[in-house]
Amino acid sequence: MNRVLFHICAIVTLATAVVASSCSREETNTLVVPSQSILVAMPGQTGTTTFDSRNITSLEVVSVPEGWVVDKIDMYAATITVTAPSTFDNEEEESGTMSLKGYTPTGDTTTVSVYLAIVPNEVDFSKAPANCYVACKPTTRYKFNPMCGGNGSVELATAEVKLLWQTASGLVKYLDMRDGYATFYIAPAKDDDGNELSTLVPGNALIGAFNEAGEIIWSWHIWVTNNDPVADANTFSLNGKTIMNHNLGADTNNNGNANSDEIARSYGLYYQWGRKEPIVGPNDWNFSLNYDDILYNASDNEVKFDYVASKDGGSVAWSTLNPVSIVIGNPDNGYDWLNDGHDNALWSAASKSDYDPCPAGWRVPDSSVFETLTIAAASDDMPWAEAQPMYGWMLEDTATGESHFFSAAGRRNYLDGRLDNMNVNEELPVPWSGYYWSATTDGDNAKALYFNLNTNTRTWNGIETARAMQRANAMPIRCVKE
Fold it and tell me: Could you tell me the domains of the chain?
């Protein structure tokens, strides 16, 4: 165990003033390491992180993993620099926790822990900016450029990045911003005994960019999944376009499997037309009570979406600055979430826009992608007892004869933003409808793939490949390759 004390070279009179003032009012002592970690790529490498402190005059290194060296703690620059062990011949550790103790002028103390680790796996998104980044490898550090948004053409004055929400505690860890990059870490899943697995915990998260004034200026969706949605095995061809077999934000496609866990992991996220900001789906696989999914911030506190009237939040600028929001449709504007007019360029049927929510190289499809789809005859003729628990339909491509499963994940309706996926019997919340946005507009509305699995009579089953829908609806998306 190493115990090293790093002192601030303070002017004596200043220290005396601080001590004296502490007699008249209660001290406020804080010591925080925002990143909670220092991660390096290889043995022997040096790494640095920043810390925030108030009324802390010196830091003591209480403990550090075997083989790691604390090179410097700069109290003025508020940085901590360490070097990882270069060899592992004498019980040196590849990872562990460093403990620091901060001292105030009056001798009070506070402690903080920092995770130190050698993480050789890194994925760099900075060369292909987007509003969504896919993280499908555990024990990996990811980085992206926080100074640009959209496809890279939106310049941002980002001073800090913070986790806005995540669907599981600890899903995205050790978020930091240094040297022009934002970085985060995806940990491996663990079994019941705490042993690390080769998989990760699937889910979604949203990282926000903040300016010097502490205002949110942009946000990025982190899509954490064990099934790489852009891999060839998870895509198929539809009307000449390569399309994902997963909904945007989903971990899998249950392909009609009635397993409740696979059904829940197939829904993905929901989007109001033209917005890049993802909206969560139901808390339960069967839409029980239509509750929203539970979200957490970096401190494991619950986060809830705001439901906002269009007159209060119906602008592109407002929605960008308020990403954890659902904007209710404005009846005076065709139930668009925009308060005034329609911006048809937010999503483009011709090319990818700066507000497109898909990963790099992918975009929201135009409506022609879906025009060859119909309900597969085998599904339409299926005994009701078999069809009901599928929570979706096999849709057949009439051009190729191939069938593909689309989840019936419903929508968030334009009237109040609530989940809307129930039949006429309110006590039986059986998902019965599928909606998938396209980038194609239609007057006040925009076009969507729609299919109906009716829970009362099979004669009402139907499909519309380009149904006009109010833009304040929030629906799933299947991204197509650019």
Answer: 4-118 (2.60.40.10), 121-226 (2.60.40), 231-482 (no CATH)
